[in-house]
Amino acid sequence: MDNETGADEQSPLQEPVLQQEEVRYSFSNGLIALLSKLNIALAFTSYQSGLLYLLGRRQDGGAHLHQSEILKPMGIAIDKKGGMVLCCDSQIIRFENVLEYGEKINDSFDACYMPRTIHLTGRLDAHDIDVDSKGRSIFVNTQFNCLATVSARHSFELIWKPPFISQVVSEDRCHLNGLAMADGKPAYVTAVSRSDTIDGWRDRRSDGGIVMDVTSNRVLCEGLSMPHSPRVHNGALWVLNSGTGELGKITGFKKKGIGKFEPIVFCPGFLRGLAFYDKYAFVGLSRPRYKRFEGLELDARLKQADSEPWTGIHVIDLEKRSCVNWFRIDGPVAELYDVAVVPGCSRPMVVSPNSPEASSLITLPQALKKS
Predict the structure, then answer these.
(1) For strand 185-191 and strand 73-78, is the pairing parallel, antiparallel, or unpaired?
(2) Residue 330 three-state SS
(3) Per-residue pLDDT tens for 277-317?
(4) Would you put residue 174 in left (φ > 0), alpha (ψ -120 to 50) or beta?
């Protein structure tokens, strides 16, 4: 495969694991070379397809896409200890990489994520997830309009709720969805509205979106369109203004109390899923198909750009403020939810909790292997 940089050229994926023949994958010629340079792989989820994807590279420099069947995978995060946490349907799952540095499995994969802890939460419509400094999985409990962690006894333990939410009840009122951590603690969240009535957020999709400070309970930015995926990178607060198709920063809130959204780049799709590494942002794009996505400014922006919406990932060079590489999915898979960077590996894999390998693969600590 030609790995010369060139984000305007398509390359066929050489080893796709396809569940449907109609699904087609393509990517820019420079993408795999960039992953190799940064020594990372990419993880991304699609609740629509029921797949967790891991995009890595083979020893010959080609691309490899590993797919793991998981029911309704949503938010995903890699913590500082190298573990992976995932929200899916009615569970919060923690995976551990069972390989030591330099080890491989099946003579090819240099990271193997095994499900080690599964919490059955019930269907909370959990969205973003991350791990705090205490090692707890902190997730956005969208159905109950709050941040939560797992409980040994109940479906969840309450961490925080917006002050405008009067009750912690099973009513998706504001569509709380995004979580940004800072210094090992929940720092910022996004919501589609400030509604305190069941399903009230659907009437505020165009301009009711907010970013909130978890510690102070203050609204830092308002007037957004279905914002998602807040993240802190290099001291700045980033967010996807999904309804306009823009990646941008929230500026001015530290001095003025209330900030504004500063768009950095437009991407042709409904944006969800954001990860950073070095000077690059990895942005997830979806093709809006349902009524909840219609009537947004994104429609006009696409028409103005004479473009159709994408499904895939755009790699944004933050210094150039432009897309320099991309991964694209065509066919029936239209929606992604989250994106994460898997550092320090070239070709990772994930074992699905429901697969035969989850029962048959036995792993041992390094000390026992030498005994």
Answers:
(1) unpaired
(2) strand
(3) 999 999 999 998 765 666 789 999 999 999 999 999 999 99
(4) alpha
